[in-house]
Prior knowledge:
Mean pLDDT: 91
Number of helices: 1
Low-confidence stretches: 15-24
Order of helices and strands: HEEEEEEEEEEEEEEEEEEEEEEEE
Amino acid sequence: MTRQTFSKWLASFIFMAFVASNSALAENIERKFDVAAGGALNLKTDAGSVKVLTHKAPTAIVEVKIKGRDANEFELVTELKGSTLEVVGEIDGRGWNRNLRVEFTVTVPQQFDVEIDTAGGSINVADLEGNLSAETSGGSIRIGSIRGAVELNTSGGSISTEEVYGPLNAHTSGGSIRATFAEQLTENAVLDTSGGSITAYLVSDVKIELNASTSGGRVKTDFEVDGRIKKQSIRGEINGGGPELRLRTSGGSVSVRVL
């Protein structure tokens, strides 16, 4: 073997060894449960994006894709307790420098309460008739049309909703918020972000006390407001007043639009 041939062989061997050492272990898990409409999903995971779909069948389907060199360190626990399906994803041991990717897809009946808490990943929820609580330590949150109370929190990412029929509160530490209130507010609501714009859509005959402000940008509204209007803040009554809608951003514009 010539020196040139040996060098090529050695380089190829080192490359293949590197690929092998970093190759992704992969595991696909699917579990199915008999549930009834009106139940609840409680999902809490140390890692992973979460997608919730709905259907008309009396079943819940949990699908999890686990990839990465450290895939064997991730454990999935599922248990049906009465009408509540509990899904827990745990990472064994400690350390931040992991090669791990987890994706949850959970399908539940359309009439279902959903609670999601992920330590890192985006959250997507389809149209739902039930209360929704979604929290992520890092990622965007997108939800469809929800008939129920909605609480959304992310430490870093945008938040977007379709029509929400019920109480709605949303907070992000870094990203924009786009929310649609599809009916008259029945209680106070808050949308706030530490960095990004806020756009709130409201029905034309909504009756609220608007309290909107920004530290960097402008506040605009399609509605007639009886109160105090400035470039960076608006506070006053819309259509005679009602529950308070509080909109706050530290960096971005605020828009209050007619739906």
